[in-house]
């Protein structure tokens, strides 16, 4: 299959890669090694993809590969997984991405790429318009790439301007809580990325909370958040966005986290309100039977087709709750309940569900504690079920009674093509009969593929109007989301402009406050001088001077009152400033509150002007009083003189 383009590939250039690989590994380039290298490349490559996976490439070989693809850009895919490019080799490959115009898929799993190599890669992708798939994850048993949080800023810039990348895997790259904020900022500006793998990145609750906020504005359809230490807080935020109706997400993986009872209940409520999510993985969590009962409410969803709950603790109660709601559910096609301590009671309820259910085609109850009571009922249920294609009962407590019942059930059900009853106590005769019947069913299923496909085609044609309606609904959701994004951007712009205007008004208010304070201090000084003059005149005056003193005292009281009012105004202005700080966290109410605040400030300024007028009047009265007192004193001296 790979012969065409490999034959067209210049062998000398491929040999340069081999010789560079030998230099990287400090090995002699023998004929035997050359043949082994070529055989591995031919075996793994396809017509569209050049595979150099696990061939021992280092930095020098990476440079040779980059040179090869620049000179002969004939492959759409390049697999370099499981090598040792490190930062040096990655930088050369990144330069190739700036020039190559054919490559659309690049696999760089397990290459020990660090910060410098990651930064070079994502900088190159800012201008690349052909690469649609990038995998920086981990191969089983291979080294981890550690791009980490220090490259999050470069990722943000790349996501905000790249218009080609639709699939990105950063599994195990150590993005962490620190890098999640910048990554989320770039993600919410990207409208082309459909698939994102952030498993094993140490996001925890805070990183997940930040990322979930960006999902409402992104175009993601598949998201992997497995192995991130996500607890109740993070799952709660994911549940909120799932039920918001603004997500296009169709597949979500939360395996190997800390999805507790409360978190599972929140997910169940979210699923009941979500009409797009099709696949949900919750394997290896902390889900108990109480949580599973709450989660089962989400099975009312008409869209979820795959649910995996293996390695939890849902027991018989959880299995029974799921079985009850799945009796009439036709959307779910795959259900995995392996390793959940389910016994005969739970298996009995699952068997009853299979009698009525017409949607599930793959079911796993492996590694539980189902005995013959449940096993026989599951076998009998096969006689009344026409949709189940795969059943896994490996590692339970089944014996020959179940084995015989299973043989009878398989003779009456020709639709089951996969059945695993290994690691049970079923005798060899029954085991061989089961194996033979399954092989016959599989062969018959393959032979009936054409009529079955024709029948399925007819069914799909009948479903076509529904699909058109579904597409219209999706288009409407997408249009609403785009409108929502445009409105958010407009509100953000208005919010920023309002903040600038408010800052200017606050500066003016501060200036007015300083001016009022200076004027107050000046008038206080004037009052003090007037008071001293009155005290000097009071010694030589009678009743008239006492009355003048009373007026002065009243002026002092008024002045004190005004001082108190100014201090009150200062407190109100401080309160306004505090409210301004709080309004930054509540941007949806910012515009209305700011307008109200501006009106209050204008009233305050008007009051300040009124108080200023009153102060002017009082000063004028004090001046008149001082002149009158001086005139009276003059008259008094004249009288004494006479």
SSE arrangement:
Layout: H1 3-8, H2 11-25, H3 31-44, E1 49-51, H4 59-71, E2 77-79, H5 86-97, E3 105-107, H6 115-124, E4 133-135, H7 152-161, E5 167-169, H8 176-187, E6 195-197, H9 204-215, E7 222-224, H10 232-243, E8 251-253, H11 261-273, E9 279-281, H12 289-295, E10 306-308, H13 315-326, E11 334-336, H14 344-356, E12 362-364, H15 372-381, E13 390-392, H16 400-412, E14 418-420, H17 428-447, H18 449-538, H19 543-583, H20 590-641
Parallel strand pairs: 1-2, 2-3, 3-4, 4-5, 5-6, 6-7, 7-8, 8-9, 9-10, 10-11, 11-12, 12-13, 13-14
Helix pairs in contact: 2-4, 4-5, 5-6, 7-8, 8-9, 9-10, 10-11, 11-12, 12-13, 13-14, 14-15, 15-16, 16-17, 18-19, 18-20, 19-20
Give structural notes.
This protein is an alpha/beta fold. It has helices at residues 3-8, 11-25, 31-44, 59-71, 86-97, 115-124, 152-161, 176-187, 204-215, 232-243, 261-273, 289-295, 315-326, 344-356, 372-381, 400-412, 428-447, 449-538, 543-583, 590-641; strands at residues 49-51, 77-79, 105-107, 133-135, 167-169, 195-197, 222-224, 251-253, 279-281, 306-308, 334-336, 362-364, 390-392, 418-420. It has a 14-stranded parallel beta sheet with strand order 1-2-3-4-5-6-7-8-9-10-11-12-13-14. Strand 7 (222-224), helix 10 (232-243) and strand 8 form a beta-alpha-beta unit. Helix 7 (152-161) runs parallel beside helix 8. The model has no long low-confidence stretch (mean pLDDT 86).
């Amino acid at each position: 299959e790979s012969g065409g383009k490999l034959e067209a590939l210049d062998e000398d250039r491929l040999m340069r890669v081999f010789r560079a690989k030998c230099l990287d590994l400090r090995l002699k380039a023998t004929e035997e090694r050359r043949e082994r290298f070529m055989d591995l490349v031919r075996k793994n490559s396809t017509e569209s993809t050049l595979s150099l996976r696990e061939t021992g490439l280092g930095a020098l070989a990476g440079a040779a590969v980059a040179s090869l693809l620049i000179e002969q850009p004939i492959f759409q895919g390049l697999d370099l997984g499981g090598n040792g490019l490190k930062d040096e080799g990655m930088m050369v490959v990144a330069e190739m991405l700036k020039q190559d115009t054919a490559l659309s898929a690049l696999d760089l799993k397990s290459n020990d790429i660090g910060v410098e190599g990651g930064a070079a890669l994502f900088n190159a992708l800012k201008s690349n318009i052909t690469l649609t798939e990038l995998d920086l994850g981990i191969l089983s048993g291979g080294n981890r790439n550690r791009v980490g949080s220090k490259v999050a800023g470069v990722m943000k810039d790349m996501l905000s301007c790249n218009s080609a990348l639709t699939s990105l895997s950063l599994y195990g790259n150590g993005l962490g809580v620190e890098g999640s904020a910048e990554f989320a900022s770039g993600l919410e500006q990207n409208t082309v990325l459909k698939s994102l793998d952030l498993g094993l990145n140490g996001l925890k609750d805070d990183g997940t909370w930040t990322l979930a906020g960006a999902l409402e504005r992104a175009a993601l359809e598949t998201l992997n958040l497995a192995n991130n230490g996500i607890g109740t807080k993070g799952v709660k935020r994911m549940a909120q966005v799932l039920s918001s109706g603004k997500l296009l997400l169709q597949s979500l993986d939360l395996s190997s986290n800390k999805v507790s009872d409360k978190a599972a209940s929140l997910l169940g409520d979210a699923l009941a309100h979500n009409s797009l999510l099709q696949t949900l993985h919750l394997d290896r969590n902390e889900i108990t039977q109480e949580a599973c009962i709450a989660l089962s409410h989400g099975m009312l969803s008409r869209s979820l087709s795959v649910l995996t709950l293996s390695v939890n603790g849902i027991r018989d109660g959880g299995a029974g709750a799921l079985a009850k709601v799945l009796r009439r559910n036709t959307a779910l096609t795959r259900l995995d309940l392996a390793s959940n301590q389910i016994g005969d009671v739970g298996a009995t309820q699952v068997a009853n569900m299979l009698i009525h259910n017409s949607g599930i085609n793959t079911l796993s109850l492996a590694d539980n504690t189902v005995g013959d009571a449940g096993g026989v009922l599951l076998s009998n249920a096969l006689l009344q079920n026409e949709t189940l294609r795969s059943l896994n009962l490996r590692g339970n407590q089944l014996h020959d009674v179940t084995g015989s019942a299973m043989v009878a059930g398989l003779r009456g059900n020709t639709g089951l093509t996969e059945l695993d009853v290994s690691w049970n106590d079923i005798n060899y005769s029954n085991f061989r009969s089961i194996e033979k019947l399954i092989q016959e069913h599989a062969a018959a299923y393959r032979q009936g593929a054409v009529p079955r496909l024709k029948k399925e085609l007819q069914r799909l044609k009948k479903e076509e109007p529904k699909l058109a309606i579904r597409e219209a609904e999706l288009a409407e959701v997408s249009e609403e989301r785009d409108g929502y994004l445009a409105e958010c951007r407009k509100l953000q712009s208005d919010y920023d402009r309002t903040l600038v205007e408010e800052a200017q008004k606050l500066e003016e208010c501060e200036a007015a406050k300083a001016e009022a304070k200076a004027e107050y201090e000046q008038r206080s000084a004037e009052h003090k001088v007037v008071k001293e003059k009155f005290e000097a005149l009071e010694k030589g005056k009678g009743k008239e001077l006492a009355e003048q003193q009373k007026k002065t005292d009243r002026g002092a009281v008024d002045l004190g009152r005004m001082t108190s009012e100014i201090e009150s105004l200062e407190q109100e202005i401080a309160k306004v400033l505090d409210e301004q700080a709080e309004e930054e966290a509540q941007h949806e109410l910012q515009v209305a509150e700011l307008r109200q605040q501006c009106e209050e400030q204008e009233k305050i300024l008007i009051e300040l002007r009124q108080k200023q007028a009153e102060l002017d009047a009082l000063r004028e009265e004090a001046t008149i009083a001082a002149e009158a007192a001086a005139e009276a004193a003059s008259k008094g001296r004249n009288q004494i003189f006479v």
